[in-house]
Design goal:
Elements: E1 2-3, H1 4-7, E2 13-17, E3 23-24, E4 27-28, E5 39-41, H2 54-59, E6 64-67, E7 79-83, H3 86-97, E8 107-111, H4 116-129, E9 134-137, E10 142-144, E11 147-149, H5 158-170, E12 175-179, H6 182-186, E13 197-200, H7 214-226, E14 233-237, H8 243-246, E15 253-258, E16 265-273, E17 276-281, E18 284-288, H9 293-308, H10 313-320, E19 331-334, E20 340-344, H11 349-362, E21 369-373, H12 383-394, E22 397-400, H13 410-418, H14 423-426, E23 429-431, H15 435-445, E24 451-455, E25 462-465, E26 468-471, H16 474-486
Parallel strand pairs: 4-5, 5-6, 6-7, 8-12, 8-13, 9-12, 13-14, 14-15, 15-16, 20-24, 21-22, 21-24, 22-23
Antiparallel strand pairs: 1-3, 2-7, 9-10, 10-11, 16-17, 17-18, 19-20, 25-26
Helix pairs in contact: 3-5, 4-9, 9-10, 11-12, 12-13, 15-16
The chain binds ligand UAG, adenosine-5'-triphosphate (ATP), 2,6-diaminopimelic acid and magnesium ion (MG).
Residues 114-118, 139, 154, 179, 181, 201-202, 294, 297-298, 329, 344-346, 350-351, 354-355, 458 line the site of adenosine-5'-triphosphate.
Domain Mur ligase C-terminal: 328-458
Function: Catalyzes the addition of meso-diaminopimelic acid to the nucleotide precursor UDP-N-acetylmuramoyl-L-alanyl-D-glutamate (UMAG) in the biosynthesis of bacterial cell-wall peptidoglycan.
Protein name: UDP-N-acetylmuramoyl-L-alanyl-D-glutamate--2,6-diaminopimelate ligase
């Protein structure tokens, strides 16, 4: 139990109706989850206005309500608090409710279009190998040191974030790394958190369904750095054209990393193979199992962050050489017929281009590159023709298929993808709605030495159609297809 007055500390309040000296059992933003003595925080959502559920929350036991506007009819014995921004209020109240766990452990946030999961997960691995207890909040999973929890979001809601940070403090976690998505920043899920550092990866086309313009998407990302405290570090990829912009107004100490320009942290790719790359990081050579220019950026970012967090440079580089690929990111299997199948989470035009270019850079030349790719439903439609163009341009054969159609018609998504394919590339493409069949067909087409890229779903182990998720795993499917072809 906490006192409402205490958890409202630092919330921007307009008006109060009733007493704030009341006990609060939990901070809840969904009326369907209200229990006795909870405080209900009403938020205007994307689909509905949470203020419509205030009375329902009270019926279920809420004794206090936080809202942006008062309901016409206020109930006796209930405290109503009007705030400027319910999302921000929810986040600050969640931090206060759990006694501000982000102030009790160094918390580092990673933001940008691509590379967040990779960087956060590699930092988790690195600090574990250096002997620390570590926390991770990522698209793939949540880890409280070695205890794993499922997650539904890249950046969970603020109550969930703080409850896990609290668990981490309890478990004696020394460092926590988290992904900070643009939805998360915009919906104030990370408001009120005390960050020890922020990392910017890159910015390219994504989520233009939600943010409407690229400038808005970029500005939202920047507000994360604007909000960092003076004591934090702000580390940016200065090769990215928005890298400098991100740090323009931050109070944090600024650092940069780059492969192409002058920066505080520099790296160079010396050798590229399928089995790994040889990098030079701040003048020291290091072999890594991770491949691709984009991973050189990711590794440089984790090297820099580790140094800024106080790890010893040589120890960091030794550990970097032992880091494993993150699940669903360039994970590959080789069949008995010597066909390499790569599963990768590339679901943006930039990521797909990077992965295909990495493969084309390393391959010997005479083998075929077959790409299987789809685009998600209820997500940015403008990505679709671009991704299809990139796939068909950079592969010898491309099979368009479905990837979480959600509430959209899967064939209509494929049609929108196909619209981006040039007449010249069209003959190299095929569309197979069923992802299982698409993977099977790619395997049937392939011959000794060929490479198959299955893009878009990475670690995901489901296909989502109309709100129902059924088990589906790209890596599992490709292994099954290879086995069937052996018979
Ligand atoms: C578009 C989006 O981000 N939506 C998020 C948002 O939902 P919403 O605004 O639609 O909520 P709503 O249904 O309109 O409801 C408004 C309010 O009324 C409340 N309500 C609603 C119904 C009711 O009966 N009672 C009630 O109290 C809701 O709890 C909510 O507080 O707030 C919800 C609660 O926090 C989130 O779960 C939900 O994420 C949805 C499921 C989602 O798919 N989000 C994706 C796009 C997302 O956030 N992705 C990013 C990663 C993107 C990336 O970088 O790749 C992420 O961080 O995961
Ligand atoms: N630094 C990078 N620059 C460009 N592309 C990258 C980078 N790192 C990874 N990628 C590509 O983007 C894909 C997604 O990577 P990752 O999961 O790390 O990104 P993310 O930012 O966490 O994505 P999400 O927004 O879905 O959480 C990878 O599978 C790879 O194809
Ligand atoms: N975090 C991203 C993941 C996209 C992955 C892709 N498989 C899809 O479903 O579109 C999103 O929710 O937009
Ligand atoms: Mg992620």
């Amino acid at each position: 139990m906490k006192n409402l007055k205490d958890i409202l500390y630092q919330v921007s309040i307009r008006q109060v109706f009733g007493s704030t000296d009341v006990d609060v059992n939990a901070v809840v933003f969904d009326s369907r989850k209200i229990k006795k003595n909870d405080v209900f925080v009403a938020q205007k959502g994307v689909t509905v206005d949470g203020h419509l559920y205030i009375d329902k929350a009270i019926l279920l036991g809420a004794t206090s309500v936080i809202c942006e506007y008062f309901p016409e009819d206020k109930k006796e014995g209930v405290t109503y608090v009007q705030v400027d921004d319910s999302g921000a209020a929810l986040a600050i109240m969640s931090s206060n409710f759990f006694d501000n766990p982000s102030k009790k452990l160094p918390l580092v946030g990673v933001t940008g279009t691509n590379g967040k999961t990779t960087i956060a997960s590699l930092l988790y691995q690195l600090f574990k190998k250096a002997g620390y207890r570590v926390g991770l909040l990522s698209t793939v999973k949540i880890l409280v040191d070695e205890t794993e929890f499922k997650t539904t979001h890249t950046t969970p809601d603020s109550v969930t974030i703080n409850s896990y940070l609290d668990k981490m403090v309890e478990a004696g976690v020394d460092y926590c790394f988290m992904e900070v998505s643009s939805h998360g920043i915009h919906q104030k899920r990370t408001e009120g958190l005390f960050f020890a550092g922020g990392i910017f990866t890159n910015l390219s086309h994504d989520h233009l369904d939600y943010h409407e313009t690229f400038a808005e998407y970029r500005n939202v990302k920047k507000t994360f750095f604007d909000g960092l405290p003076k004591s934090a570090f702000a580390l940016t990829n200065i090769d990215d054209k928005n890298g400098g912009f991100m740090l323009q107004n931050t109070k944090a100490k600024k650092y940069s990393y780059a492969l192409k320009t002058i920066a505080d942290y520099k790296a160079k790719i010396l050798e590229k193979q399928f089995s790994g790359s040889l990098l030079k990081i701040n003048e020291i050579e290091v072999w890594t199992k991770l491949i691709g220019g984009f991973n050189a950026y990711n590794l440089l970012a984790i090297y820099a962050a580790s140094e800024l967090l106080g790890l010893e440079k040589l120890e960091t580089l030794t550990i970097i050489s032992k880091l494993e690929n993150v699940s669903g990111r360039f994970e590959y299997v080789v069949s008995d017929e010597n066909v390499t199948a790569i599963v990768d989470y590339a679901h943006t035009p930039d990521a797909l281009k990077n992965v295909l270019e990495t493969i084309n850079d390393i391959r010997a030349g005479n083998e075929q590159l077959i790409t299987v790719v789809g685009c998600g439903g209820d997500r940015d439609k403008t990505k679709r023709p671009k991704m299809a163009h990139i796939a068909s341009q950079l592969s010898n054969q491309t099979i368009f298929t479905s990837d979480n159609p959600r509430t959209e018609d899967a064939q209509a998504i494929i049609d929108e993808m196909e619209a981006g394919v040039t007449a010249e590339n069209y003959k190299k493409t095929l569309s197979i709605l069923d992802r299982k069949q698409a993977i099977k067909t790619a395997c049937k087409f392939s011959k000794n030495g060929d490479i198959i890229l299955i893009a878009g779903k990475g670690h995901e182990n489901y296909q989502e159609i109309n709100g129902i998720r059924t088990h589906f795993d790209d890596l599992e499917e490709v292994k099954n297809s290879f086995n069937q072809l052996k018979k």
